[in-house]
Amino acid sequence: MNRVIAVVGMCGAGKSVACDVLREMGWGYIRFGQITIDTLAAEGKPVTPETEKQTREALRSRHGMGAFARLSIPKIEELLRLGPVVVDGLYSWSEYKILERRFGGRFEVVCVYASPRTRYRRLEARRHLEDDREHRNRALTEEQARARDYAEIENIEKGGPIAMADHTVVNESSVEDLREAIRRLVETEES
Questions:
Q1: How far is CA 3 from CA 27, 28, 86, 87, in A?
Q2: What is the separation of C-alpha 67 from the centre of its chain, rounded to a whole number of angstroms?
Q3: DSSP helix/strand/coil, 111
Q4: HSE on the CB side for 130, CA within 13 Å?
Q5: Which of 25, 59, 122, 144 is packed most tightly, with the most Cβ within 10 A?
C-alpha cells in the first residue's frame, strides 16, 4: 500500500533536502507552497516574502486553515495511484488533521529539526544561490526568518504537526548526513 509522508519543520531546517531524497528514490512529490507561487503568478505579482505571506493568508481566509491540504488532495490521490508520495511543506494543525483523516494509516509525518541559530545561518547563506526558480530555497535575513518563525507558530499552529511527527531527524551537520538519515529512515520503514 502506497503511503504519504509529509515533511515538516521550520524554514531552513532541511525540508527541501529531505524531500529531494524521496524524489530521487522515485516518490511522487507535492509542494504545498507551490500553490502560493502559482497564485502569485496568476495574479501577476512578484514572489517576495511579503507577497507570499499575504497570499498564504488570503488562501487560508478563503479556504480555511487546512487550505493547502484541501487544495492538494486531488493531486496527492492521483500520484498515490502510481506510488508513494512526499508532501513538502505541511504547516498547520488543520492540514495535518485533514491528511490524517483522508489517508489514515498510510499517512506519516517526518519532522526535520535544526536549531534557530543553525537555520538562520543557512538562510542567510542562501543569498549566494544563483538559481531558485522553484522558490524553494529563498534567502532570508535573520530578522525575516525570526518573523516568519513567529508568524508560523502563532498564526498557523505549525507546532502541532511538528509535535505529532512520527519521526524526527535532527539536522545540525552536513547535507550528506541529512540525506543519509532520510534514506535510512525510509528504508527501515519499508522493510
A1: 10, 10, 8, 11
A2: 14
A3: strand
A4: 0
A5: 122
| CATH assignment of the domain containing 121 | 3.40.50.300
Segment 62-73 shows an average pLDDT of 94
| pTM metric for this prediction | 0.89
Per-residue pLDDT averaged across 161-172, rounded?
A: 97
pLDDT beyond 90 at 89: no
Q: Quote the cell numbers at residue 164.
A: 505529532
Cα–Cα distance, 114 to 12 (Å, whole number): 8
For 87, the domain range is: 4-190
Distance CA 166, CA 109 (A): 5
b/e 148-174 (16+ beta carbons within 10 angstroms → b): bbeebeeebbbebbbeebebbbbbeee
Collapsed DSSP state (helix, strand, coil) of residue 39: helix
